[in-house]
Target: L-threonine 3-dehydrogenase, mitochondrial
Amino acid sequence: LGVGLADMLRKQYGTENVILSDIKKPPPNVYSSGPFVYADVLDYKHLRELIINNRITWLVHYSALLSAVGEANVALARKINITGLHNVLDLALEHCLRLFVPSTIGAFGPSSPRDPAPDLCVQRPRTIYGVSKVHGELMGEYLHHKYGLDFRCLRYPGVISVNTPPGGGTTDYAVQIFHDALSTGHHVCYLRPDTRLPMMHISDCHRATIEFMQSPECQLSLRTYNIAAMSFTPEEVAQEIRKHLPHLKVTYNPDSVRQTIADSWPIRFDDSNARRDWGWAPAFGLEELVADMLRSVREKRTDEGLPVR
Ligand SMILES: NC(=O)c1ccc[n+]([C@@H]2O[C@H](COP(=O)([O-])OP(=O)(O)OC[C@H]3O[C@@H](n4cnc5c(N)ncnc54)[C@H](O)[C@@H]3O)[C@@H](O)[C@H]2O)c1
Model:
């Protein structure tokens, strides 16, 4: 998600003023789009050096292992999602940075209200991913209240984007289905057809993040907000895709790890506080999302010389 957010921020603040970082080699288009540096969130001293040398003022902390990958490697998820976050929190506090950390629908669990999940309710997630995200929400808010850290956090729904290959989350199917629809015409879904989850188009997700980061502190009654756009099931998104590609075939082969995770997550998000406090409003519903994704995936495949249905 970081690349698209950096693009949007660079349009507003200037290319040179937004630095992307990762521990992975950037693809050519990312490398040539603006400043890029290697930064491992586990290396506190190096992060500090980057902050000081570049006079950093805002930090957007996206590094994480996502839900399904985290379950497969709990020790690494704990390290990156919790130890890495502690480094970032300490640095933000020490250097007076405005800090954004995304949370997720995965910060809720089977004992949370699911339809809708409000901002403030029981949070007992059953994944290491969710546990680390709740920890992040609480640590950030604690440091805000105790020391005035300008911590801001949005709970993202499943984010649908053409450029980001699915990163091992539970909502990945909703990206993969577009690629399959335009290549083989057949998608094998790892969730049951009626699994409803909150989802959002990536441009809404980025816009929400920037608008929230730009909001004056006095408008924020919370430091962690739900944001919502739509909720759909695999069956519903497939049906919408069939309006464009009638021959799409979907077979269902539920994977027990991801199905159990999805069944513990909210069906819908209540984002009324975000709408009231800082004016959040999504632009994409299911119809717009499907039309845009099919157009973008088609364009991408054509550019890459791949066949398109
Ligand atoms: N994608 C979604 O649908 C979604 C939904 C809710 C919240 N989020 C949150 O948004 C953020 C970004 O998600 P994403 O989908 O882009 O995930 P992703 O898996 O695509 O990207 C995570 C990045 O973290 C990097 N990383 C891993 N270990 C690192 C380390 N030690 N130091 C520095 N970087 C490291 C990886 O190289 C990767 O580029 C995450 O915090 C995630 O929890 C994403």
Notes: The chain has a mean pLDDT of 96.
